[in-house]
Amino acid sequence: MGMRASSSTVVLAVLTAASCSDPGEIGATYGDAPGEQAEPVDGGGPAETDASGEAPEGQTGDAAPEDDPPETEPPEVEPPESDPPANECLEATAPCGADTDCCAGLDCGTTTLGQVCCGMSDAPCATANGEDCCGDLLCVDGSCQDGASMFKAPYACGQSWTYDHHSAEVRQALDFIRDDGGETDGAPVVASAGGWATQHWEAGGAGNYIVIDHGWGWQTYYFHLWEFSVPDGSQVVQGQQVGTTGSTGNSSGPHIHYEQLYDGVGQAIRFNGESLAPYPAYYGERSYVSDNCP
Ligand SMILES: [Zn+2]
Predict the structure, then answer these.
(1) What pLDDT does residue 200 have?
(2) What is the pLDDT of residues 184-242, one digit of tens each?
(3) Ligand 1 center from residue 237 Cα (angstroms)
(4) How far is the CA of 161 from the centre of ligand 1 (A)?
């Protein structure tokens, strides 16, 4: 029997320079969002006191006749401090039971503090951690915003990089290379927002990579780094260098493979709240100049 001739011509489709293949399920192990712990709701109002005027019945008639007491108003009882006056409203972060409890512009929603008066999208806010913003909204630059609004480009302030959709769709990743005449290889990779940075290695995939956990379910990934610039587990601020651009792992050339994840699921990448989707398929179609300035 003759062997079946197999066409062994392997067509290597050279797509574009500096891309990388599906790094697999890396995100799955880092998708644990910190669970929101709602504080127990104090359901008890002030205990009702027994205000009934039942007097023990007198037994004998020897009691001195009482004068008719003058009709006096019962003394005004000051309401306890914890009861808000009915004509005022609850400010942000105050526990509430309904939207109508809260001052104008606030809703009664859930934050990390529990069920409190809080702001919806674009409402003013003051807390660093967004406790006065409803749901998953964070307090970004003084107003309640979707968490992704906090992210800036993962490369240095003022630099222009072009980007394309990662070759095999994975978590809505983008690949970035520099297009302003500067070198991509060795260029600083910077934190899109503040958080906690951890070092990772995946041979044949992401290579050296950093994961920054920003809290509230948000993470960013930076793959194929030549080297790390921060210790494992360190706290970083927005714009801080966390590594240098390289081509480690499954990569055909220096680039930054970048992802934004919410609760472990890749999101359409946004810088300053503006989405880069729909993504271009090739480098050179669109560029983005970083305003991730320290
Ligand atoms: Zn990639």
Answers:
(1) 98
(2) 999 999 999 999 999 999 999 999 999 999 988 899 999 999 999 999 999 999 999 99
(3) 24
(4) 14
Taking ligand 1, which is a single-atom ion, which protein residues have CB atoms under 5 Å away?
A: 20, 166, 175, 257
State whether 158 and 285 are in the same domain.
yes
Q: Residue ranges of the chain with pLDDT lower than 70?
A: 1-87
H helices of 47-100, where?
Answer: none
Query: Would you say the pTM of this structure is higher than 0.70?
Result: no
Q: Are residues 194 and 174 in the same domain?
A: yes
Return the amino acid letter for 266: G
Q: Which domain holds residue 132?
A: 99-145
DSSP string, 119-148: E-TT-B---TT-TTB-TT-EEETTEEE-GG
Q: Give which of 281, 192, 180, 184 is closest to 239, Cα–Cα.
A: 192
Residues 125 and 179 in one domain: no
In a domain, 90, yes or no: no
- The CA 176 to ligand 1 mean position distance, Å, reads 8
Q: How far is the CA of 22 from the centre of ligand 1 (A)?
A: 7
